[in-house]
Design a protein that fits this description.
mainly alpha, ADP-ribosylglycohydrolase fold, 3-stranded antiparallel sheet
């Protein structure tokens, strides 16, 4: 009997102690200074990835770009390369010069709207409220699923009906992956909440497995505030993504191929052969150069083979082809968070200050974000101001989700109730 009592007592002690230890393990500390550095890496990392990929956007499908992109290419570069020379994408150095800073593209300007929307309505913004913001601010320079959703809004539809399969013919395209990353930095380290809100945003334009890459990147970017191991980040994405659908299968394949092949080009070939025209039994995924399927998988590939290095990751994402500016921007955001602006590397920073055609800036992108695409919003905003505004929302999210702020060694720190 005494032995039984000892066992019972020991069991009770374990029951009480182990959960307490687990709760304690969830708390992670980040200084305000480091948070700001990572948020700067997020926004500037997106911008640079976007600009590196744009000259090659949608030009390489059957094969990746034959070179590893390690800088911004212009219309003057190697004529054997298929660069977008007939429009502004091959002239970004001139465009940024004229703008005197970074300019909005769909990789950042819809997030710019989301930032304003959350500031107005709060983190618990509703679908009718975000629909109102889309109708007010997003009226041009949008494509595929975003464009279809916006057209449906004019017909009286309200999100998430704007993303449903029966209404939006582009429900599977890449759009939500590249416009919802901001939810991850609103919820640093709170990966489940980041994924929930990123998926919420994805349903404005997409449905079914078309939302799954958004969930994956939402988790990874949020996790990257504290986790540096890219393989662990990808595993977190695998754990978060629903098992149904081709993206879940694909992300596991990419992990397998990464272990098998030293060269990312071999993995890219496998992605193209299996997932560009995906068929399984009687099911066939819609085929599109801008599908979230193969583009999302190429981003996972770039993250794994990039090994945490900003230029290597974004270079692979840009060189992978398809809708490469979008996957490069998303990967750039993730590694920008992982490394912070201070850890993006000298070469990356050099591009951000030397990208204009006639001058060198003192700060990345001249510390200026020029919005010429989203109506009734400020045209010129310092990047540092955007970062400060994101940080203010992140602070609210931290406090609302069991975290707190303290002063340690005379510096403000955040104690975040993480879920990994």
């Amino acid at each position: 009997m005494r032995q039984i009592c000892y066992v019972l007592c020991f069991t009770v002690i374990l029951t009480l102690v182990i959960p307490a230890a687990n709760v304690e393990a969830k708390e992670r500390v980040i200084t305000h200074e480091k948070l700001m550095d990572k948020l700067s890496g997020f926004w500037i990392g997106q911008l640079l990835g976007n600009y590196m990929g744009l000259p090659f956007e949608n030009n390489y499908v059957e094969e990746p770009v034959p070179v590893l992109i390690d800088r911004y290419y212009t219309f003057r570069d190697d004529p054997s390369l298929d660069i977008n020379r007939d429009d502004w994408r091959g002239y970004i150095h001139i465009f940024t010069d004229a703008m005197e800073g970074a300019f909005g593209d769909d990789d950042t300007d819809i997030e710019f709207v989301t930032l304003h929307a959350v500031e107005k309505f709060g983190l618990d913004i509703t679908y009718p409220e975000i629909t109102e913001m889309w109708k007010k601010h997003i009226n041009r320079r949008i494509w595929v699923a975003n464009a279809t959703a916006r057209e449906l809004m004019d017909e009286g539809f309200i999100a998430p009906d704007t993303g449903r399969k029966e209404n939006n013919k582009n429900w599977f395209q890449i759009d939500p992956q590249l416009v919802n990353e901001i939810w991850s930095v609103f919820y640093p380290g709170m990966t489940k909440r980041a994924a929930e809100r990123a998926e919420w945003g994805a349903h404005i334009t997409n449905d079914d497995w078309g939302t799954h890459p958004t969930i994956a990147y939402g988790v990874m970017i949020s996790g990257a505030f504290f986790e540096k191991d890219v393989e662990k980040l990808v595993q977190m994405a695998i754990d978060a993504v629903p098992n149904e659908g081709p993206f879940a299968e694909g992300i596991r394949d990419v992990v397998k191929w990464h272990k098998k092949y030293d060269n990312w080009r071999d993995t890219r070939q496998n992605i193209h052969e299996k997932y560009y025209e995906y068929k399984k039994g009687s099911y066939e995924a819609p085929v599109s150069v801008v599908s979230s399927l193969q583009n999302g998988l190429c981003g996972i590939m770039a993250i794994l083979y990039g090994e945490g290095d900003y230029m290597k990751t974004v270079g692979i994402a840009s060189s992978a082809g398809y809708d490469c500016d979008n996957q490069a921007a998303t990967c750039g955001a993730l590694i920008g968070v992982r490394n912070g602006l201070s850890g993006m590397g000298e070469k990356a920073i050099d591009i951000t200050i030397n990208i204009p055609s006639q001058q060198e800036w003192d700060e990345p992108f001249n510390n200026l974000y020029v919005n010429y695409t989203r109506d009734d919003l400020p045209v010129c905003t310092p990047i540092s101001e955007i970062v400060e505004r994101i940080a203010k929302i992140a602070k609210t999210a931290i406090l609302e989700n069991g975290g707190r702020m303290e002063i340690r060694d005379d510096k403000p720190v955040y104690i975040i109730n993480c879920d990994f």
